Amino acid sequence: MTSKRWGALYALCFAVALGWGATGLVEGGCDWHNDGQRSACGVPDGYGWYAAVFIVAALSFPPLCWTVIRTDDWRPSLGISVGAAIALAITLFTGVTRGFLILAAVEAAIAVGVPLILRRVGRTKARAKKMSRTSTPT
């Protein structure tokens, strides 16, 4: 496998893990703690795995940017699209309350937007590079 294929697979796994963790956190809601002076939101019992998966996926985002989100080739970012589509299905099968619908809208925007943005930016850079080659001063 080439590095582009590994990057696409990595992006797919990242998007599915992040979406699954976020879905679990939305499903669990917020467990409010009050100590008299301030209140804080915590993860309810039984939903710690979702928080752990969400945090690990979020921490793996910088290497993902390095390997997948590049402007020279937008095709490895299709892994993010497929993973976000899978996460969208997981979210909508879990529930259809307001929180789930908001999360589903974000996942749909990521699935469609990331490759389109990277393709457009890549084309702009390629055009600029081509123009710099053809218009060199003599």
Written overview of the protein:
Helix 1 (3-28) packs antiparallel against helix 2, helix 1 (3-28) runs parallel beside helix 4 (78-94) and helix 4 (78-94) runs antiparallel to helix 5. The chain is built from five helices and two strands. Strand 1 and strand 2 (39-42) form a beta hairpin. The N and C termini lie far apart (43 Å). A two-stranded antiparallel sheet has the order 1-2. The longest helix is centred in the C-terminal third of the chain and has 37 residues, at 98-134. The protein is mostly helical. It has helices at residues 3-28, 48-59, 61-67, 78-94, 98-134, and strands spanning 31-34, 39-42. The model has no long low-confidence stretch (mean pLDDT 84).
Strand/helix succession: HEEHHHH
Mean of residue pLDDT values? 84
Task: Give the terminus-to-terminus CA distance.
Answer: 43 Å
Strand line-up across the major sheet: 1-2
Give the strand tally. 2
Structural class: mainly alpha
Q: Can you give the helix content as a percent range?
A: over 70%
Q: What's this, in brief?
A:
This protein is mostly helical and 138 residues long. Helix content is 72%, strand content 6%.
Keywords summarizing the entry:
138 residues; 2 strands; mainly alpha
Helix and strand topology:
Elements: H1 3-28, E1 31-34, E2 39-42, H2 48-59, H3 61-67, H4 78-94, H5 98-134
Antiparallel strand pairs: 1-2
Helix pairs in contact: 1-2, 1-4, 1-5, 4-5
